[in-house]
Amino acid sequence: xxxxxxxxxxxxxxxxxxxxxxxxxxxxxxxxxxxxxxxxxxxxxxxxxxxxxxxxxxxx
Length: 60
Hints:
Elements: H1 14-24, H2 42-49
């Protein structure tokens, strides 16, 4: 984590993690979500790729 700007980030639950990630997304070109199957990180990916209510599923 020392080689990445900003270092490590820890969240107590999925909602806190998503809020932290979404706050950083506007300035990020790509995102690597890495974690064990036990941590069920696919929930993070699913939440990030699913369009939010009122948004189009396709980029403009």
